[in-house]
Each structure stands twice: as structure tokens, then as C-alpha cells.
From TrEMBL:
UniProt xrefs under Pfam families: adh_short_C2
Keyword Thylakoid: no
Stated name of the protein: Uncharacterized protein
This protein's UniProt keywords: NADP, Oxidoreductase
Length: 283
């Protein structure tokens, strides 16, 4: 039967020869994602964060991976994605190495925890600038490179890192993350708008919504909410997220397997979002 004939199934999840840019790629979920892109066959993965030393260290670890395609390389491109000047500096650095980009992972983000009554305006502004405004500037500035080789059959991909905090109530109380939760909801809706805007240009825009993953950003909240073990046991899947959980979704969205997925938001949290009270952590 014709339905049984799938086109070149062995290459469905391959990123052979692709060029990717990962902001916030020097550690945590960004580094997990960058590792996945390289190991799935990408030829060049640009790693960006504010600290040059962190970018260099991350690239050294990635380039030491044993199963990369011949010539594959991770390249450090430090920049501050929170400002338009920083985004344009990142674009200039990437443009020195390539004339096109196939995959853009807008992963750089910040959070701030403080009570409602004393929550500073400067902190709220900082989080919104990087998590929303910075993402919009990043995608707009990189659109010409993303369009260079984009087509109906092989669209370029944008993946935005949002959060389950943008889908439900985030952390409240003494360590309330009001700006973070609002920014992650905002960037999800931005992604939906850009999916419709950029789809005709051959660019898909999707978002991932991680739950609690042990990382530098989340470890403080995890400890206050009961620790790694306690939070893991409370999850419907009885564990927290792992790097592989992010890696698999990112490869799916950026490979041929995800070519017709556009405007989606994929939760990666073991189902905790739907567990009553899971996100309403009052500290």
C-alpha cells in the first residue's frame, strides 16, 4: 500500500550539514540542545552567551564529543542577546563564518525571584527585555540568513525556549517570579504570531516549555520547593527532566520529522502542568 511507503525514513531525524545558532548555549538546557544538534549531524553550531569564557568552554566540550560528523564544529560567538546592539554583534560574528542559518534556537533567558510588594521595576524590565524583546530582535535580525536556503520542502527552523510557567501559574510568594512567568507567556504568543508571519517565507517557529530541570537557573527554586528528590517524586512521572528530554524534542522540531509543525508549544515536564497545585509553589 502507498501509505506504507515513507520517504527516506532513515534520514527523518537527521540534521546532516545544517547550520545552527544557539543563544544561552553555554550551559544547561541550551548546551543539552546544542549537543543534540551536533550529534544529529549539524555541520556548524554557534554557541552564544554573554561570557566569552563560558562559550569557549562549552565549545571545547562539544568539539570533544566522539560521534560528530567529519568537520563538524561548535564555534563560540559571545554576545548579549538582551540588547539590539548585542544581537547585531552576534549576527555579524556568525556572518563571518556562514552565509545562511538553518536553525535558530532562542534559548537565552533570565529570571528573578522576589516578593510582590518589593519586586523591583528594574528586575521586571531586565527579564522582559531578554526573554521577550530580545527574542523578537534575534529572530528579526536573523530572518535574512534563515531565508537564504529555506523552501517549502526544507524550511528553516526557529525554536523558542519558553516554560510551563508561561502556561500556568508560576512561583508565587517570597521568591515570586512574576516577570519570568509573564515573559514566558508573552514569548509563547509571540511565537504563534511569528509562525504565521514567517511560514510563507519557509521558516517554522515553535516553542518548547520545559518544567523543572536541574540547572543553575532553577536549582535555588528546586531546593526551596522541596529539593530534587522531593520534586521528582511529586511529578506524575516520578522524576525531573533530563538533558535527553530536551534533546529529543529539539531534534524532532529541527529535523525533517518536524517540517510541518509550526506554531506549536510542546510541554516537557512529565505532565506536572496538569497536576493540581504543581506550579502554585508558595514559598
Amino acid at each position: 500500500m502507498a501509505e506504507a511507503q515513507l520517504h527516506d525514513f532513515p534520514s527523518l531525524f537527521s540534521l546532516d550539514g545544517k547550520v545552527a545558532v544557539v543563544t544561552g548555549g553555554s550551559r544547561g538546557l541550551g548546551l543539552n540542545a546544542a549537543s543534540a544538534l551536533l550529534q544529529a549531524g549539524a555541520a556548524k553550531v554557534f554557541i552564544s552567551s554573554r561570557k566569552a569564557s563560558a562559550c569557549t568552554s562549552a565549545c571545547a566540550a562539544l568539539n570533544a564529543l566522539p560521534n560528530l560528523r567529519p568537520g563538524a564544529v561548535a564555534i563560540p560567538v559571545p554576545a548579549d542577546s538582551a540588547t539590539l546592539e548585542g544581537v547585531r554583534d552576534l549576527l555579524a560574528q556568525v556572518s563571518k563564518h556562514t552565509g545562511h542559518v538553518d536553525i535558530l534556537l532562542a534559548n537565552a533567558g533570565a529570571t528573578w525571584g522576589e516578593g510582590f510588594d518589593t519586586h523591583p521595576d528594574s528586575a521586571f524590565a531586565k527579564v522582559m527585555d531578554l526573554n521577550v524583546r530580545g527574542v523578537f530582535n534575534l529572530i528579526r535580525e536573523f530572518a535574512p540568513l534563515l531565508q537564504k536556503r529555506a523552501s517549502v520542502e526544507e524550511p528553516s527552523r526557529v525554536v523558542i525556549t519558553s516554560s510551563v510557567a508561561g502556561l500556568g501559574v508560576g512561583t508565587l510568594g517570597k521568591q515570586g517570579t512574576y516577570g519570568y512567568s509573564a515573559s514566558k507567556a508573552a514569548v509563547l504568543h509571540l511565537g504563534r504570531n511569528l509562525a504565521v508571519e514567517l511560514g510563507p517565507r519557509g521558516i517554522t517557529v515553535n516553542s518548547i516549555c520545559p518544567g523543572f530541570f536541574p540547572s543553575k537557573m532553577s536549582n535555588g527554586l528546586l531546593e526551596m520547593a522541596g529539593g530534587l528528590e522531593g520534586m521528582g517524586k511529586a511529578n506524575p512521572m516520578r522524576r525531573l527532566g533530563r538533558g535527553e528530554d530536551i534533546a529529543g524534542v529539539v531534534v524532532y522540531l529541527t529535523s525533517r520529522a518536524g517540517a510541518h509543525v509550526n506554531g506549536a508549544a510542546i510541554e516537557i515536564d512529565g505532565g506536572a502542568l496538569w497536576q493540581r497545585g504543581q506550579l502554585d509553589v508558595k514559598l
